[in-house]
Amino acid sequence: MKPYFFYTILLSLVFFKSISQNSPIVHISTGGIFDTVSDRFGKKYNLFELKTNNMNRLSGGGQANSLPTTSCNAGYFNLFFAASSMFSTTAAQTVICQVFSDISSFIISPLSVGSNTVRINIYCDNTPANQPGAFGAATAFYVYPSNPTNPNQCYMDNQIEKTIKTGVDAYNFLPLSFVNASSFYHGMVLANPNLSSGNWHYNLSSTSLSNTDYDFY
User: Fold this and answer.
1) What is the pLDDT tens value at each position of the chain, 217 positions in all?
2) pTM for the complete prediction?
């Protein structure tokens, strides 16, 4: 049996630290101060790209100009499934929603206290076409101030960790020039729909896997 794939990579999301760099793109936050966004691999994004109603795909591949078709609430998380991706299938959705629900049960957070309805938004899509050998990847997003006099701003918490620790949506701390701070992605999960060898195993009730199966959970 292959290791639990997503359970393994998602555990690294919450507490992964990042070193920020100065690279503003477009002024959509107040004064353009918080335009700089990156993932844990160092890829830069425009803050606007992280809006849940953005029509472009964050993964850099697949069908453009299409919003996620479905989503699910899984513990502390809202998962958004990219259209025409492997996550648009019921099998993949069922597994990834179960993973995030199970991880939430291990985390103590103000998000679970009282009537707190804040949730962490996760974008789910295929791996980029230019990375055919990758089984998958996961990352939180890092939003930090642009400061040309201090290009290396040391360690920071990501948007997932901030929200889990405080119980307040991390985007509420930014002086945004528009409302709806809850409508941004805090992290992203990618998976390869076309494995070069073997197949994804989606059955949550079966532990019987062949030597060529990879446990999607």
Assistant:
1) 555 555 544 444 444 443 333 333 446 667 777 777 899 988 888 888 888 988 888 876 555 667 887 789 999 999 999 988 999 999 999 999 999 999 999 999 999 888 899 999 999 999 987 777 888 999 999 987 766 556 665 678 899 999 999 999 998 877 665 566 778 999 999 999 988 888 899 999 987 888 888 999 9
2) 0.83
Alpha-carbon Rg of the chain, whole angstroms? Answer: 17
In order, the DSSP letters of 171-183 are GGGS-BSSS-TTS
Look at residue 61 and give its three-state secondary structure. Answer: coil
**Contact, 174 vs 35, CB < 8 A?**
no
- 90 Cβ neighbours under 8 A, 6+ residues apart: none
Q: Give the residue from 65, 31, 29 showing the smallest Cα distance to 45.
A: 29
Say which DSSP state 101 is in.
H
Q: How does DSSP classify residue 13?
A: T
Please work out, in degrees rounded to the nearest 5, the angle formed at the alpha carbon of residue 158 by the alpha carbons of 154 and 159: 140
Residue 42's alpha-carbon distances to 37, 113, 180, in angstroms, are 9, 34, 26
